[in-house]
């Protein structure tokens, strides 16, 4: 259902802070042509925390419209209030999305039981497959494997995006959740190794600007051609790391603008433009990856 190289898509803005739908269409076409296997619209990389509910739903709807059935679209529906995530799920029912990706609630640090009840409530209000998203480095809460296992018993919770970088969890999740539960990496630096150890793909920031390479690498890895996949990964490794030299998506939006993929690299406060000191580092990482 979900596998390969899925892009955690940036949300482009105009200089006056409005969503740039012209650039959004350009990005969708770019990923279709590059062979990406899916798009996450308005996830963390899409600056979901700074969009209004109306903007959030419209960006997802326009992404589905621009995709026009050529590539699956997964909607980011995460929030730190369960009722807000439930609202997104209800509003996006029958919208043409292929699934929802919900990050663990941030800042309020729920217990494992709270996390279980949060995701259960979301799943009960949605008519599409659900992907759990664990990124404790950003949320200050860790969705533990035992809780993932409980949630995997809910019919429409079908996958986990694991951005912990802890590869030892792959075997644990597989044992607890069964062979049909989908495991996706959310950490570009360890994404290939994640697939080598039994994962089905990666939801990627790097894919925003290295889409064709990421698609090829994941296709090779899933076919068991690890040496060829590793050659691509090594070329991208500096990019994987330096796209996080400042808070994501600051560096990747700057790089996408530099490539001409979006009209401008503006972000919404409290995020700010890539610093002057970081620009040569990202530029060199792009050069190392052979990206113009």
Key words describing this protein structure:
TIM Barrel; 292 residues; cytoplasm; Aldolase_TIM; alpha/beta
Describe the structure.
One of its GO terms (molecular function) is 4-hydroxy-tetrahydrodipicolinate synthase activity. Belongs to the DapA family. One of its GO terms (cellular component) is cytosol. With 292 residues, the protein is an alpha/beta fold. It has one domain: Aldolase class I (TIM Barrel, Alpha-Beta Barrel), CATH 3.20.20.70. It has 12 helices and 8 strands. It has an 8-stranded parallel barrel, surrounded by 5 helices. Helix 4 (112-124) links the parallel strand 4 and strand 5. Helix 6 (145-152) packs parallel to helix 7 (168-177) and helix 9 runs antiparallel to helix 10 (226-242). The radius of gyration is 18 Å and the shape is globular. The model has no long low-confidence stretch (mean pLDDT 97).
């Amino acid at each position: 259902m979900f596998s390969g190289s899925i892009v955690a898509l940036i949300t482009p803005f105009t200089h006056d802070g409005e969503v740039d739908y012209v650039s959004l269409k350009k990005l969708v076409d770019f990923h279709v042509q590059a062979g990406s296997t899916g798009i996450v619209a308005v996830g963390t990389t899409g600056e979901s925390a700074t969009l209004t509910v109306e903007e959030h739903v419209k960006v997802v709807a326009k992404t589905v419209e621009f995709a026009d059935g050529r590539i699956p679209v997964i909607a980011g529906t995460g929030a730190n209030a369960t009722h807000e995530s439930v609202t997104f799920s209800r509003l996006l029912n029958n919208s043409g999305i292929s699934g929802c990706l919900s990050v663990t609630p941030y800042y309020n640090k729920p217990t494992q039981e709270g996390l279980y009840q949060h995701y259960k409530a979301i799943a009960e209000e949605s008519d599409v497959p659900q992907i759990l998203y664990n990124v404790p480095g950003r949320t200050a809460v860790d969705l533990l494997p035992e809780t993932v296992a409980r949630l995997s018993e809910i019919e429409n919770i079908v996958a986990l995006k694991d951005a912990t970088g802890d590869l030892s969890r792959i075997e644990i999740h597989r044992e607890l959740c069964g062979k049909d539960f989908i495991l996706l990496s959310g950490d570009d630096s360890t994404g290939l190794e994640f697939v080598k150890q039994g994962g089905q793909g990666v939801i990627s920031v790097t894919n925003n600007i290295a889409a064709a390479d990421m698609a090829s690498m994941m296709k090779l890895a899933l076919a068991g051609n690890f040496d060829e996949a590793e050659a691509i990964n090594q070329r991208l490794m500096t990019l994987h790391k330096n796209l996080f030299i400042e808070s994501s998506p600051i560096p990747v939006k700057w790089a996408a603008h530099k490539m001409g993929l979006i009209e401008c690299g503006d972000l919404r406060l409290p995020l700010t433009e890539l610093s002057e000191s970081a620009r040569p580092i990202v530029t060199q990482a792009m050069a190392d990856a052979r990206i113009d």
